[in-house]
Structures are given as C-alpha cells and as structure tokens.
Amino acid sequence: MVALSFAASFGSHMVLQQAPARASLWGFAPASATAVAIELAADAASTPIAVNNFTAQASLARFNATALVWSVLLPAVAAQKRPDGSAVQYSVTARMGSEAHATLLDVLFGEVWLCSGQSNMAFLVENSFGGADLVQDANNHPEIRLFTTRKLTAQRPLQELGESTNRGDWVDGVELPWSVASNVSISMNAPRAGGANDDNWLYMSAVCYLFGRALQAARKTPIGLISTNWGGTAIQDWMPPAALDDCRHVSADAAAESLAAEGGGAEGGGTEGGGAEGGEAEGGEGGVRAAANLSTCLPCCEEPLPGQLCCCPPPGCAIPPSCPPPPALAEGAGSGSSLAEEGARILAEGVAASRVATHLYNAMVSPLRNVTLAGVVWYQGESNGGAPVPYACQLPALVKRWREGWGGWRRHDHGFAFGVVQLAGDVDEKAPIALPIFRWLGQTQGFGSLPNTKMPNTFLASAFDLGDAASPFGSVHSRHKKEVGERLALAARRWAYREPSITAGPILQSAVADAGRRRVVLTFREVGPSGLVLSRMNTSRAHNMTNWDGTTPFEVCADGAGAACGAMSTSFDGAWSLAPRTSLGADGKSIVLSGFADGGSGRGRGGRAEFPPAAVRLKGKHDVRVGFDLDAAVVADVGELGGL
C-alpha cells in the first residue's frame, strides 16, 4: 500500500522559496484517501516573531491504480530571523485523518536555485583551488541547504525522481537528500555501491555551492541549492521535446542570417530583456558582418584555414580532417580531444550517460518542476562546442521551455532568472577559434552579453580568463570554481535581484577608429563607479600557439595582410597582430589601442587565445576579476584608420 509521503524533492532541512513567491508542495497518498491536510507551523523557539502558521486541504489527483498525488500552494512566507539572528525554522506536516501523517522538520524559507549542466557543474568543491579549506568552511554556513539528484535516464518526462528508468523500475532518485551545509554534506567523493549510472563526482557541485555561499553572504537569507548534472552530456540531453522541436529547422545559414537580421552585435539590448540602456539591441555593422561570416565559413567542403570550423558541411561534403567533428549524440562524441578524454574516463568508470535527446530532462529535471524556484544556473557547452549555430537556438529554447513547464510562482513575467557560465579556455581544444565563436554565438546569440532580447531575464558569468592548463582533471576542467561562483552571484544580484549598486562585468558598447590620432577606442558600459582596470595574467599557462607577450590582449587586423579580417580567422594566419600599446581611457570606461604604423582600413579584437594574458576587470568595492572576451562580443569593423 502506498504511504502518505512528500515527493522525493522535499525533505527535512530544505529551503522553500520565500515571499513574494508562493511555494508549492506535493506528495503521494493511497488511492483510498479522501482528504489530505497540510500544516505549516513555526517552531516554538521562533516566538514571539510574527510567523505564518497555515493549514489547508490539498488537492488530490490520480497517479495510478494504487496512489493519488496531493498538492498545495502555500501562502507567501517571508524569510524571518529569530532574536538571535538565526533563521526561523518551520515544520510541514501532511495529515490523512487522525493517524497517518508525514512531517518535514527544520524547514527554512529563503531563495531556491537549481544548478545544472555537465562536468564543470558537477566538479567537486574539494577539487577546486583551496578546496580543503572550502570544505571545512562549509560548517560555518548552516543556512545553506543542499540537495543532489541521482544520475538517471528515462524515456518519458517523469513526475517523480526515480519513478522509472528505461527498464521501467522504480529506483532511488536522490543522491544527497536535503542537508545542512557541512564538511560532510559538501564533500562526498565515493560512488554509490553498484551504481552503474553514477560517476565519482557526486556532490557537492563546487560552482553551485560557491554561488550559493556568495549569494547568502550578500542577501543574508537562507539559500537552497538543487544540483542536477551529468558530466560529458550535450544540451540536447537536457531539452524537453518542445525545445528540440523549436530548433529542428536550424541550419548554419538560417541561424547566421537570423542573427544578422536581428542585429546580434556589440550592444546588449534593453532592460529586463537586454542591457542596462533599455530599448532593442543595436547590433551595428560589425555584428551583422560577423554573423554573415559564419554563414559562409561554417558549412564548407574543402580544407579550411587553420582553426576554421566546418561543423555543418552541406550534404555530400565530408568534414575536413583538421576540423573538430560535430557532436554525435548516439555515439557520445564531442569536439576536441579534451571531450574525448572525458568520455573515455566516464566509460572507464562504468558510467552510462544517456546520449538520447531529452532523457536527462525526463529523469532529472521534469520531476523538479513543482519546486518553486528563484532561478537556475547553467554550466554546459563543452560537448556542443563544435556546433555554435545550433546552440544559439538550443540554449534559448531550453530556457523558454523549462520556464513554461515549471510550476509554482514566477518572479518576473519572463519566468525565473537563468544564469549562464561562459566557457573558459581549453588548451586541448584542437581548433583555437572554436571556443571564442561558441562563447559569442552559441552562448550569447551574437550579442556578446546577457540579458539580451533573445534571452530575457538572464545573466552571464564569464570564465574567459579562468583557464587552467595545469589542471590534473584535464584543462577542460578549470579549478577556478570559486571565481565562477562569485561572478554568478554578482550577476544574479545585478540582473535577477536588481540591486542598483552592483556591477557584474563590463559590456562592450562600441569600437571606434580615430584616424587622426591613429588609435582605436573601445568603450564599455556596466563598468561601475570606479571604472575599469587592465590586469596582467600569467602567460606561462597560455596556449602554446599564441603570440601573447603579456603586455596586451588586443589584436588588430590590416587589410591586405594575406588573409581575411573575419571572425573565423586566427592569429596564426598572419592577418592579425598585437596592438602595439594598450591603455585605459581617462574616462575609466574605455580602452585605447594605439601605436600603429601607417596602413589601411582594419578591425580590432581582443583576447583570442584560449588562455589570454590579460583581462578587463572592475575595480573598487567589488574587486572581482571579470574576464572580457572582446571577440565574443563583436568583431568590430573600425573603418579607415591611417595608423592601422
């Protein structure tokens, strides 16, 4: 007989989404049940704090022949503090008559975030830089609560975690039940015995936890973190069927022409659905031209220039041997040797990650849809890095369809907030141009920043400057997870929580040629009251094919140099060369490239290497380095410049 219970995604020690949201609860009851009452009560130690005690009858619906599903929407409950400064604790009880009941204890109200993606999201806290100290420090954050799903697949969208696998069996769908943050709950690096569908990165996600830690420190409210991820997986695995349908028509030409027509370029877009300035995105000629280059460069039949992508050849055309192969979901292939190595590692450990589109969404996301959220953070893309054009459709489609299918309350009309980590450099990537193009086109749809008009109510954390060539886990797995988590938290505060004093990172606004003074001026917005600072980086870990010398991250390209000044060309083909001098503008929001010899017209770009020697960052109160991938924002046609 089915017992009265809460769904697997709820448990003691959890966090429920606070006001103005109305948190949802649900669970199971036997088919004979006629009524289920839900009681919410603050613990006795919370008095005399004004709290919301609540009793209501749950709605009942048929689940199968032996079980019903009960559900209830709680009133909006604000996170409150006890006199000693700790969070008010609640109990939640489901009752069926006078005897049967199920109770959750030590429940807090606060902000609930879901974290998803592939191995860089799964990457453990203890494996990060400073991991041992971070693990012990978790004992100091009892108002951060953690939950991790088990790695499972399913052929249809499930209502409950572990409801069924592809064999039709019910299994335990939870890897880490709701737990108070501690050195134990945050650090478990051993596979479950007999778990053929688990790798050895189980919990806790470093990026997820460190994002939550930074957010909790700033917002002073409990944080609930739900981690659902699987290494080596492609975005298609996480897309619901409707999202896949949204992108079945996408080809390289169609996607590039669409971006060009809609102005994907330097400007970010409007407020709510765009940048800080408001209004529609204004791509400008540079953005249009860069998108058009992808239309002609991505689908190709003959041998490309070094670093050129050919992931979408026309029918009958073989992929040139120097190009990375496109993702082949049925076989689990990615692009670049680092992904192949990760796949080999996973297979060697007996992991059977699904390579059938939607199967991870079905088993690991769909059952969470009735958990009310503040938002989602997403760290994925390495397995799709060779296909930026399809990804430019797939990521917005995933965001849209996740939001549409989610239950509970939504913070904005655009749906819950959605944060994206822009991929870091990877020296094992065989096509050096692949990641810059993927960051620009695939992850930001040709705008170079989030939010934009294609992805409203989103935010971006750049990891462009956080490559880790010496990582013992492979260079695709940078250990700089603390920086990524903190940048995500800053971006969430700026865009999801609308904190007016927060600046999350510079966004390129324009690139203008000053022919008389023989220079190019790059102007940024979102620089904060203290402006920009140029920070030199460690070139000893740079890609061994770059020409960086540590003094400037910016390149220029002169016409007539023997190769096109296009988005797809590399610094190795002779067209692009380092700007002689790089300096900050007096206004604190611009960068000046100067010292050019006589030449013709040209373009400017920055930070093409997988591990650039310098990055633009903010200075002042929030002194957190924010990598800026200029080429990921725009390949700017700077026009006639006598000194270029």
Task: Give the topology.
Elements: E1 5-6, E2 15-17, E3 24-30, E4 37-42, E5 54-57, E6 59-64, E7 67-73, E8 90-96, E9 100-117, H1 119-122, H2 131-137, E10 144-149, E11 174-180, H3 206-219, E12 223-229, H4 241-246, H5 252-262, H6 284-297, H7 337-348, H8 359-365, E13 375-379, H9 388-405, E14 417-422, H10 434-442, E15 458-462, H11 481-496, E16 507-514, E17 519-525, E18 532-536, E19 554-558, E20 576-578, E21 581-584, E22 590-594, E23 601-606, E24 614-618, H12 630-633, E25 636-640
Parallel strand pairs: 2-9, 9-12, 9-13, 10-12, 13-14, 14-15
Antiparallel strand pairs: 1-3, 3-7, 4-5, 4-8, 6-7, 8-9, 10-11, 16-17, 17-22, 18-24, 19-20, 19-23, 21-22, 23-25
Helix pairs in contact: 3-11, 5-6, 9-10
InterPro entries: SGNH_hydro_sf (IPR036514), SIAE (IPR039329)
GO biological process, one term: carbohydrate metabolic process
Protein name: Sialate O-acetylesterase domain-containing protein
